[in-house]
């Protein structure tokens, strides 16, 4: 659930960044269309907007990278848990087989001892 929330937040941040990028691009296009007497000012605004777009695109790439890393960590954790569970099941099955083998050996020994006790009892009665 935490991983899901992190991915949802990350996706929302990416959408917000992309929305802001699109807005800044439209602002940049509007700034490009508006050629007035203050061309130097317009050039400065254009550079600032391009820099802002570049920063936001970098943030989007970073967020996508973090999202991919968290997805990979989640997949690794699930894979590790599945392997651990299979290993535990295998160990449990081996213990059950060992215990059932011991129980059958004890039963066989008990039967053998009962038979020997009965035979001993008969020998005593014959004696």
Automatic annotation (TrEMBL):
It comes from Amanita thiersii Skay4041. Residues 14-73 form a coiled coil. Keywords: Coiled coil. This is Uncharacterized protein. The keyword Coiled coil applies. The keyword Coiled coil applies.
């Amino acid at each position: 659930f935490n991983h899901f929330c992190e991915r949802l937040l990350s996706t929302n941040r990416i959408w917000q960044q992309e929305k802001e990028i699109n807005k800044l691009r439209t602002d940049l296009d509007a700034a490009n269309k508006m050629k007035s007497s203050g061309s130097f000012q317009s050039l400065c605004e254009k550079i600032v907007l391009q820099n802002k777009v570049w920063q936001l695109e970098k943030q989007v790439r970073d967020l996508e990278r973090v999202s991919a890393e968290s997805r990979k960590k989640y997949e690794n954790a699930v894979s590790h848990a599945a392997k651990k569970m299979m290993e535990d099941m295998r160990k449990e099955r081996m213990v059950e087989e060992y215990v059932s083998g011991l129980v059958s050996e004890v039963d066989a020994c008990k039967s053998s001892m009962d038979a020997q006790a009965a035979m001993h009892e008969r020998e005593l009665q014959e004696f």
